[in-house]
């Protein structure tokens, strides 16, 4: 199956790619994972892209889109997006600029997906979401086996950022 994982940056797309790859690996199916926008090279490949690509859209078998609260994406992307953009372009990008770019990435793919992965829902009920992902791929998977894999665990920086955003929202 040729799979695209799309949507805004910092929305859980890497986590989703790891989950999908793990589901296939548990079922003894090798799935290539690439970030490039070139053509699919095999029948079992997953590509992660953020900017809309009409060619890949038409070539893929299944599209997963990722969505996350825009405020969380901006906070999560501060170090990885805002600072590098400012130094690379010699321009002072603001949170507003980053937010607009992230929103555009989401809107470009909106309505084109076969399954929408919502980052916050995953952390509310991982088993339910993992079962939905596996079912959408028409593959049986035990959520415990998926969660047990190191590749599908978030590192501590994700948890710290999520907690900081949660505290900001409470105020």
Please give a structural write-up:
Strands 2-3-1-4-5 form a 5-stranded parallel sheet. It is α/β, with parallel strands linked by helices. The termini are far apart. Helix content is 54%, strand content 13%. Residues 154-171 have low confidence and may be disordered. The protein contains 9 helices and 5 strands; from the N terminus they run E-H-E-E-H-E-H-H-H-E-H-H-H-H. Helix 3 packs across helix 9 (156-170). The chain has helices at residues 13-26, 54-59, 70-76, 78-89, 95-109, 119-124, 126-136, 143-148, 156-170; strands at 2-7, 32-34, 45-48, 62-67, 115-118.
Question: Topology of this structure?
Answer:
Blueprint: E1 2-7, H1 13-26, E2 32-34, E3 45-48, H2 54-59, E4 62-67, H3 70-76, H4 78-89, H5 95-109, E5 115-118, H6 119-124, H7 126-136, H8 143-148, H9 156-170
Parallel strand pairs: 1-3, 1-4, 2-3, 4-5
Helix pairs in contact: 3-5, 3-9
Helix/strand-derived class?
A: alpha/beta
Computed over alpha carbons, the radius of gyration is 16 Å
Unreliable stretches (pLDDT < 50, length at least 5) are: 154-171
Largest sheet: spatial strand order: 2-3-1-4-5
The proportion of strand residues reads 5-15%
Largest sheet: number of strands, sense, barrel closure: 5 strands, parallel
Number of strands: 5
Pattern of helices and strands:
EHEEHEHHHEHHHH
Helical coverage, percent range: 40-55%
Features:
alpha/beta, 5-stranded parallel beta sheet, globular
């Amino acid at each position: 199956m040729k799979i695209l994982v799309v949507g805004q940056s910092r929305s859980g797309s890497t986590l989703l790619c790891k989950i999908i790859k793990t589901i296939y690996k548990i079922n003894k199916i090798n799935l290539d994972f690439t970030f490039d926008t070139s053509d699919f090279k095999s029948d079992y490949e997953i590509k992660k892209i953020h900017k809309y690509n009409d060619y890949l859209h038409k070539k893929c078998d299944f599209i997963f889109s990722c969505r996350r609260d825009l405020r969380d994406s901006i906070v999560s992307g501060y170090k990885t997006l805002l600072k590098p953009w400012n130094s690379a372009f010699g321009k002072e990008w603001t949170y507003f600029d980053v937010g607009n770019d992230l929103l555009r990435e989401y809107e470009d793919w909106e309505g084109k997906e076969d399954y929408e992965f919502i980052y916050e829902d995953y952390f509310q009920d991982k088993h339910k979401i993992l079962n939905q992902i596996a079912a959408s791929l028409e593959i049986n998977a035990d959520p415990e086996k998926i969660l047990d894999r190191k590749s599908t665990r978030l590192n501590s920086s994700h948890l710290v950022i999520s907690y900081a955003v949660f505290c900001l929202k409470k105020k």
